[in-house]
Every structure is written in C-alpha cells, then in structure tokens.
Amino acid sequence: MERMESMEPISTYYKTDYPEIHPESGSRETTESQAKTPPAPTYDEELVHKTILVGDSGVGKTSLLVQFDQGKFIPGSFSATVGIGFTNKVIAVDNVNIKLQIWDTAGQERFRSVTHAYYRDAHALLLLYDITSKSSFDNIRAWLTEIHEYAESDVVIMLLGNKADMSSDRAIRRDEGERLAREYSVPFMETSAKTGVNVDLAFTAVAKELKHRAVQHPNQPKFQIHDYIEAQREKSGCCSYF
Ligand SMILES: Nc1nc2c(ncn2[C@@H]2O[C@H](COP(=O)(O)OP(=O)(O)OP(=O)(O)O)[C@@H](O)[C@H]2O)c(=O)[nH]1
C-alpha cells in the first residue's frame, strides 16, 4: 500500500470564499410571515472546504484519513508523511453534498514551516493526539498556539484523541481530553483509526458545521456541534469502553 506522499497542487476547483447569498425573488404578494422571514439560503455544492489534519508525528493522521476514505486500517504500513498531500471526499449531510478536501500533513518538526503555509485558507482543522502518548497530548497547546497564529480566526477546530482502541496503554484519560477541549472551546472526541470508532462522526460533524456556517441564516438557531456529537455518541453507544 502506497502512503500518501503526494505534493499535488491545490485542486483547480478549490475556492476559499463562501458563496454569495442572494435572497430568492419571491412573489409580489408576500405574506406577512414571508416578509418577516427571508427564504433560507441554499448551500452551494460546488464549494470545497479545505480541512487539514495536524498533530505530532505518529498520532495517526494518515491512518485516520485512510480509515475515513477507504474504511480500512493497515497496521504499521505508513512511514512518516513527507510534506503534505490531499484526498477529496464528498459527505452527504442533510440531503446536500459537502466537498471536503482533506490535507494530511507531516507531524515532524522539520516540515512545520511547510504546513503553516496551508493553515491560512483552511476552513477546518482536525487536531490529533495519541491517547497512549503524553507528549503528543502536552503538545496540543503548542499546536493550538500555532493554529491561532497562522489560521483564520473562524476556522473550525476539532480535537481528537486517537488510538482509543489501545486502552491498556492509555496515558491520557478521556476527561483530560475533554477538559482541554473545554478550555479552548473546541469540540472533542476519541477516535480509533484502527477500529473506525468515531472516524466518520468526526468528519461528518465538521462537514455539518461548515455547511451551517456557509448558509447561516440570521433567524435560524446556530448549529451546535457539541450537542450533535453528544447526541450521535449516545445513539451509537459506541464509546462505552473508553
Ligand atoms: N492501535 C492503533 N494504532 C494506530 C492508530 N492510528 C494509527 N496507528 C498506528 O500509529 C502509527 C503512526 O500512524 P500514522 O497514521 O502514520 O501517523 P501520522 O500522524 O500520520 O504520522 P506522521 O506522518 O509522521 O505525521 C502507525 O504504526 C499506525 O498503524 C489507531 O487508531 N490505533
């Protein structure tokens, strides 16, 4: 299995801007409720949302992307990522197709200046640590500092504690991850690129948040990503062994 080492250019259909929202022209005889509530803006399915995986080397960024993209885990198959490469994925959310362009970055320090350059036009960042590695968890604060320095202030950030299947080697309790996420007001979940636990949920939650932001209607309640994640977790009962 080849690992993703590609240095492909950003795809030609990549757009950094959200669509312009044009209120649909309504009939002349506008009812009172229509007058009060402008029609909900539609989502532009041509939008491509740049989503970047970041975190220390070895936390499982490539494995997480391969699990999400191909639904499989190939143990120990990936040598450290060199540079940066992307995979395009389409996720169906609420009957619309959300295009994610997911970038897998190299966690090694020597590639840091390369990856910083990609933060600026990122719409979402998935920040990973390894639940069996205290240093990868301790470095999350430094990663968040870098993100705040180089990324746009409204970038969607999600913290993921990966390798949740390795509970016997756990170095970071789940509540420690939750506490850190609360401190930075970012959503959090534990994932396993090996078993696939929460992998789809992590990307779907990000896609939902991006969609809602793109069509945010002033009169509609804001999408609550935390509540969505909690509800999905309860529904699946996936995480009782954490
Ligand atoms: N048990 C277990 N092993 C994992 C998991 N995710 C990744 N691994 C293993 O951890 C090692 C590192 O995984 P990678 O996906 O290469 O990590 P990375 O973050 O992309 O590393 P860099 O490319 O160096 O930044 C590999 O041996 C994977 O098989 C997981 O969820 N569970």
UniProtKB/TrEMBL annotation:
Q: Name one Pfam family in it.
A: Ras
Any GO molecular function: G protein activity
- Gene3D superfamilies, per the entry: P-loop containing nucleotide triphosphate hydrolases (3.40.50.300)
Q: What is its EC number?
A: 3.6.5.2
Stretches of the chain forming a coiled coil according to its record: none
Q: Where is this region: Disordered?
A: 1-42
User: Which co-factor is required?
Assistant: Mg(2+)
Tell me the keywords, alphabetical order.
GTP-binding, Hydrolase, Lipoprotein, Magnesium, Metal-binding, Nucleotide-binding, Prenylation, Protein transport, Transport
Biological processes annotated in GO: protein transport
Which stretches does UniProt call biased (Basic and acidic residues)? 17-31
| Catalytic reaction(s) noted | GTP + H2O = GDP + phosphate + H(+)
Q: Which family does it belong to?
A: Belongs to the small GTPase superfamily. Rab family.
Q: Which PANTHER family match?
A: PTHR47978
This protein is called small monomeric GTPase
Q: Which species is this UniProt entry from?
A: Amphiprion ocellaris
